[in-house]
Design goal:
single chain; about 220 residues; alpha/beta; Rossmann fold; 2 domains; six-stranded mixed beta sheet; 7 helices
Length: about 220
């Protein structure tokens, strides 16, 4: 019987999950294990496309650089695209496989063609997509830092890990979780497995709606 869920995101970022837990009378703990700070950066080369790999990359890039309408906007997935739209941007490309870096990179490369692309990233970015684009078309700028903010979490029935860095921070002050484990994409799954934690579910599109479908299936059994 599932009665409690923990997710490494803040409540404001997960409205669908919050509604699901209220509907099913579940206790929801939503606390990120990481925090962010802006970093000053300079852009060295001209570019045609700005690609955002997370909502934070949108926020911290726009703090420094407005984006004229002539530039194309790419987003890793729907969650990042929604955040970009809230900040006044219109995405031209939205990845279909944000939970599977290889598929997303192939899709991005095909759409990009020979245009130059700029990636605003975190200081600990795994650069999963960047390595699939020819180096003479790419510039990466570190727009923000990601810091561990480890929190001890009481035992839960379901643990949802939303990023590799959240896994690493969680493990600094918690034992390996004993419950249903959900990984928000392949990269997060790989880090969990490196800690000998094997997810029951891996979200391949890394979308909140996909998470709700996975949880709903557990209640229908």
């Amino acid at each position: 019987m599932i009665s409690s869920i923990y997710i490494t995101r803040e409540l404001v970022d997960i409205p669908q999950l919050q509604a699901f837990c209220e509907e099913h009378d579940l206790t929801l703990t939503a606390k990120s294990q990481i925090s962010f700070d802006a970093i000053d950066f300079e852009i060295a080369h001209p570019y045609d496309v700005v690609f955002f790999s997370s909502p934070r990359s949108v926020t911290y890039f726009l703090k420094k650089h407005p984006i004229p309408s002539k530039f194309k906007i790419g987003c890793v997935g729907k969650g990042t695209a929604i955040h970009a739209q809230r900040l006044g941007l219109t995405p031209d490309f939205v990845g279909s496989y944000s939970g599977e870096p290889l598929k997303n990179a192939q899709e991005l490369a095909e759409w990009l063609g020979d245009r130059r692309i700029l990636f605003p990233i975190s200081d600990i970015s795994q650069r999963n997509l960047i390595e699939f684009i020819p180096s003479d078309q790419v510039e990466a700028v570190i727009a923000y830092s990601t810091k561990s903010s480890p929190l001890a979490i009481p035992k839960q029935d379901v643990y949802i890990f939303s990023s590799p860095s959240n896994v690493e921070s969680f493990m600094q002050c918690n034992e390996a979780p004993n419950g249903i484990i959900i990984a928000w994409g392949k990269s997060t799954e790989n880090v969990l497995k490196a800690h000998s934690i094997h997810p029951n579910v891996t979200l391949l599109r890394s979308e909140e709606s996909e998470l709700i479908v996975a949880l709903s299936s557990m209640f229908s059994k």
